[in-house]
């Protein structure tokens, strides 16, 4: 199996007004590995995001108006499926995810349908506190139970998927807040997709700051629980019967 | 007379709904509800005693309260229905937006290829990364699968066999 040429990988980057950083992120990813194709989903940006990304060598998908991360990702998955990519990975356009980790996260797809680059798995210095932390822990616990594997960071936007998971995502990938992480993940698991996680380090964002507002964090907690409860009651997708596992390559 | 005013109002509503239907400004599924309301108001205005009888029958002491309760319930139902409808419409819009974005990207890369690969035989790649752009010769009814390596390690085709079928038939 190793002898075969490695299939191409689509790196999907949802970007909304990230003109300042998207160019360097794209260049970094393309430089990392020749089998990566970068698709920047320009989510209705009003700045130079599309031009910067195209200049850096990415394919740009221009959404006519802002759809949110969930909508942007679904457009990206649709594109990936149309062009027949075997593997896709979501990477933040603000440089938060280290492109050097992409291969590690993709390696997780050898034995699972979805591979999450996890920020808390005893590596790196990413820390959160207060209600946001509780929310993340609660979500991680519940979803770990569902997936029957230990997951520590289910809201990570650093996720890879194979064709099977993409097909499932296209059936259910809500544009709602948190829909792109929790909801889609829970429904994917309940539809029979397997999940694994790979510990990664997070870098400081190149632009913008993560919010530490306690009120916002509390709202986040409420919304995530809400999203989780809904996801748990949704009808799972009927996937095509599982084709033979990529026999331990 | 209040009754006559109510009757005329109901008549006006029914007439308006029918006129809008006739001009195709209103879809039937929404019109039905308003027609029912209009006709019910007509009947009540014509026979005001009816309200008292019904109120007595269902055990409401003041007949007008029955009227109010029914109106509020109905408006609630209409609001909910409209919220549902707009959610459906939003979802459809979102799907169209995705579709348009993908088509535009494919079209642009097609044009790029046509410009660059005009008379030559070898297809030059405009960008440093060899990306799977759609082939210069578009076959409109076939699923574009320009990934150079068709021999993926996994039996890739089996995963999504049901999906390309539907897109290629349409």
What attributes characterize this protein structure?
heterodimer; A: 249 residues; 8 helices; 7 strands; globular; disordered C terminus; B: 170 residues; mainly alpha; 5 helices
- What class, by secondary structure content of chain A? alpha/beta
In whole angstroms, how far apart are the ends of chain B? 61 Å
Tally of helical segments of chain A: 8
Which pair of chains forms the biggest interface, and how many residues does each contribute?
Answer: A-B, 44 and 37 residues
Mean pLDDT of chain A, as a whole number?
Answer: 81
| Structural category of chain B | mainly alpha
| Beta-strand share of residues of chain B | under 5%
Spatial order of strands in the largest sheet of chain A: 3-2-1-4-6-5-7
* Helix-strand pattern of chain A: EHEHEHEHEHEHHEH
Helix content of chain A: 25-40%
Strand content of chain A: 15-25%
Explain what this protein looks like in three dimensions.
Chain A has 249 residues and is α/β, with parallel strands linked by helices. Helices cover 39% and strands 15% of the residues of chain A. Chain A has helices at residues 22-32, 49-55, 68-82, 102-107, 130-147, 163-171, 179-190, 214-233, and strands at residues 9-15, 36-43, 59-63, 87-90, 114-118, 159-162, 195-199. Chain A is globular and about 45 Å long. Residues 242-249 of chain A have low confidence and may be disordered. Chain B is mostly helical. Among the domains of chain B are: 1-47; 63-115. In chain B, 66% of the residues lie in helices and 0% in strands. Chain B has helices spanning 2-22, 28-46, 49-58, 63-116, 162-169. In chain B, helix 1 packs antiparallel against helix 2 (28-46) and helix 3 (49-58) crosses helix 4. The longest helix of chain B has 54 residues, at 63-116. Chain B is elongated and about 85 Å long. The chains are: A alpha/beta (249), B mainly alpha (170). The interface between A and B is large, with 44 and 37 residues.
